[in-house]
Write a structure and sequence with these properties.
The complex is a heterodimer of chains A (about 240) and B (about 110). By secondary structure, chain A is of the alpha+beta class. Chain A contains four helices and eleven strands; from the N terminus they run ααβββββββββαβαβ. The longest helix of chain A is centred in the first third of the chain and has 16 residues. The relative contact order of chain A is 0.24. Chain B has about 110 residues and is mainly beta. In chain B, a hairpin with a 5-residue loop joins β6 and β7. The radius of gyration of chain B is 19 Å and the shape is elongated. In chain B, about 30% of the residues are buried. The chains are: A alpha+beta (about 240), B mainly beta (about 110). At the A-B interface, α2 and β3 of A face β6 and β7 of B. β3 of chain A pairs antiparallel with β7 of chain B.
Chain lengths: ~240, ~110
Amino acid sequence: LKTQERLFLNSLGLSARPKPSTHRRVPSVLWRMFKRTSTRENDTHERDPCMVSEYGVRGNIVRFVQDQGRLVSGWSGSCHGCVEKYMFFNMSVLQPVEQLSLAQLEIKFQWDMFRTPRFLLGPQALSVSLYKVLRATLRGASHEAHRRLVLSQSVQLEPEAGSLTLDLTALAQNWRKPGHNYGLVLELQLHPVHTQATDIFMSQNLVNAIPLGPTVTLPEFHASLVVVSLNPLQCRSRQRR
Amino acid sequence: SAVYLPVTPSNVCKPRRLYIEFKDVGWQDWIIAPQGYLANYCHGECPFPLSESLNGTNHAILQTLVHSLDPHGTPQPCCVPIRLSPVSMLYYDNNDNVVLRHYQDMVVDECGC
């Protein structure tokens, strides 16, 4: 029985029965895809099982790879209204046989409606800079020389939420080579759009008085890498009978 | 001469209903969805003469012929899946990532000899 189980798990690309430490929330897009494919499986046998139509690429595996990085400096750090985060996506979860079709970074911003000053919930502009880390640096050394800018963009945050997607397929393909994945650094800088309320707030120099941290927060953000790959051994074309 | 035992329609080769529940094999912790699925299985005899409905291969037709002549020396052909369909599975991998994977050959749709 153990051998049979191991064979099946191996075909799923798993070395052993997974023991999830936390049951992460399933992204809504994955639920939608699962429900759609399950319905279609019952309806017809003529669809292409090796195409992920949501992303318009070939594949039979969709992963939401978790960010294993850490926050370098938070919103309430020395730089007011900015944040720096190190991101790491473990690409070794892909089996060598898999062909990478897409790696798309998704960063979702969400305001905490209960702990954020109402005036900050207005329109916000967010400067986003994303760097590829080229090599490891020693403690105390300058990190700037060891990273390359991948993206610099301004994002208009909606009153309650916002998101940013970025195609990182070429980069992720390189990360699959041993010793090439040093991760990414994300820098965010918040620029409140001037409204009468914010102007009054700023003119009274109250912005520094916002008790950022445990009582009031700036937008929370969550990054994940959507990875679509194709295992050609498990993707036979279906012949019309 | 060979002795032919009557084969009733209920025990000829055909798909039988089998619902696999992942909880029964202790996989409910890491498989998010589905909780189970209708996998089915093939069971039944492939009697001489093989009718068209039994989807026999040429090899099976000849094997039943030889079996009818020498029942002890050659067994009857086996009842096996000839058409399978896929299932999508949503699960956690060893790194707590959520994975949607499309799996072929998971459900028996049709059996043959």
